[in-house]
Each structure stands twice: as structure tokens, then as C-alpha cells.
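BUG: 3D viewer hangs when loading the predicted structure for this chain

Environment: internal workstation, default settings.
Expected: structure renders.
Actual: progress bar stalls at 90%.

Input used:
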Amino acid sequence: MSLFGKLFGGKKKDQETSVKGSEPVTSVEEAFWQQVYDARSRLFEQHFGPLPNDILKMMDLSGVWPGGGLYVIPTKIAREPSFIYTTFGLSNPDMPTALEMVDTQPTSDDSNGLRTVGFAGTLRQKAKVRPRTDRPGYGYELIVLAKENADWPLWLLQWATKAEVVKDADFLAIVERHEGFTVEQIGIGDGKFVNLLISKALAPFPDHLELPNGKMELLVATVITEDEMRWSMTNGRNNLLGELKAAGVGQVSVLDRSSVVCIEEPDFAQVASLEQAKALEAKGQLTKLLMFPAEFGGEDVAMNVLYVPYRTVRQRTAHIQTLRAWVSEGAVNSLDVRPEYRDSSFVPSRIHMNASHSESGEQRTLTLDVW
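C-alpha cells produced before the viewer hung:
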């Protein structure tokens, strides 16, 4: 995974960043930084298990998030062998960051028979610096608890860390304001996507940890199903967390598991007008979809809009990845999308994506079975 690099011995601040116009780091600040880092290390080991010797660094944030990284910790916190994937450094005393990296470019080096991959760019002060609070750094660390040792939880942490450090998402404030929040279609590599529920940690996790620089919350990102996502929109994120806990899933992320809630779909054959489709959209039972994909130039105009169940969006995303691959390999250079309707329904029963090549004549079709 080229965005990550292993650094041996992650229990030290690995670098200091010097930027023209920034205040120098004093020895007192350095000592306090290390005090916080060591305290968090002890607490993580107390509650989760020994920290690995290697910390995973997000190479394209190395100058913006010095001393921060990701850990994969083998644990038995869920009463059986599992793995905690966690950020480690969002609660550092030098966060929120006042820096941003621009003109980032991947780099590689093939010296001494070892190929290394990294990122280079220019550091500068942010135009708008997020004000400090009495919370430690961003106020939290984010965890994904999974039963397998895999790469996909790291993709989730990468997305979340960038949203916080680069875009100042303020996940903790959103969680506290709405008792958790959900996010759709986060990429986990290989053209796959998941939905997430982000909420405060429940037992057997500690609800927070006390650091020398303040109270650090623990947030947990849990993979949820399409039905659970839709159900939470009308029943509440906190109630979804209760359903997950009651079903024995809790905050453990498992790909492709069965849903703990059931949403009855309307009879799409009876949806005979735009007004009925929009009414179902307001209830979270249908969503708007561009017939000709925006990824290939489709516009958000009335004649290009369809209304479909949410699961169709996820299926169509996978088809778009396939189409992109076909375009990249030169197999196709034209796309025609045609919906198929059943009886008088306003909701298409199928969507045919017909790809072809103007010179070779090759034709390939992908079909979405909507209902």
C-alpha cells in the first residue's frame, strides 16, 4: 500500500517540521509532547494489548502530522482474537495542525537494492487555522475493530485522518451533536466500498482516556449494511448502535454480514409518477441516480435522472469501476445507457450500460437488476 510506510520504533516523535513563519519548538514543548505520547502508549497497551514495534505512517501527511500514524494491534477485547486498527496521534499536543502540504508528488528511490516510495511537497501555513480547545489535539483517536488482519480497515483510517487533518472535519463535534453519524460509500481498495457508523466507544472499550493534555474520547467506525444505513436515517444513529449491540455485532466491523434490521421495500410496480418517486426519496426508500454517469460527463438534468433503491447505487459504482478499466485498456470508447421499465412503473426494473468501440466494433454490456 503505497500511501503507508513502516517506521520501526514508533514510540518517538520521528521528526520536527520547520516552516518559515512558524514558532520554534521549545524543549519544554518537546518534553510535554513526549509525555503525552508515552501516556497514550501506556493506556493503549493497558486496554488493548502491546503496541507493535512498527507504526504505519501516512506518507502524504508526514510533514503535516509529525509523530502521527496508524497501529494494528492484535487484541482479545471482543472476547475472541481480533485486531484493533487505530489512529495514533490525533490527540497529540501539536494538533490541530497549522500546516498544509501543497504540490504533493509521489517519489521513489532505488538505492542499495531497496525501493522506497514516499511523497514530496511544499509545507505552508494554513490560511485558516483551526483554533485550539481544552481537548487534547482533535480530541479523539479513531478505531476500527475487525476479526481479520487485512488492509481494508487501514483505508478507512486513511480516509478519516485526511478528512480531519486536511479538511478539519471535526468528527468528534458531529458525533456529539447527532449521537453518531453515518457515511456512505467509503473506498476500501479493489473497487470496493462500505458504509460506516461512527460513534463513541461502547464497552468493552473504555469510553475515554485521560491524557496529560486532557480528556481523549475514543470513536469507533463500524461497517454497516445498506439497510442499516437507511434505517438509521429515520430511527436515529444511536438506536442503530443499540440494535447492533443487541444483535451481538456491537462495534465489530465485518464485511458482507447480514443486516440486523429489516426495511420493507415499497411495491415499485405501484410507483407510477415522479411525485410518488420523490415522496419515497424523502422517506429514504429511493434515491436519485444520473442515468448517464457523471463520471463520464452525465449532467444533473431532468431527462438524465432516475429514481432507484440505494443498493442500486452501490452496484452501479462497481460497474463504473469496470467501465473505467475497459476504457483504460482501450477496449471501449463509447457508452449508451438505457433503462428498462416494467408495466407503468416510474422506477426502472433494469438499467443496461452498453459499451462499445467505434473502430473495432467490440461491444460489452453491464446490466443492473433494480427490482
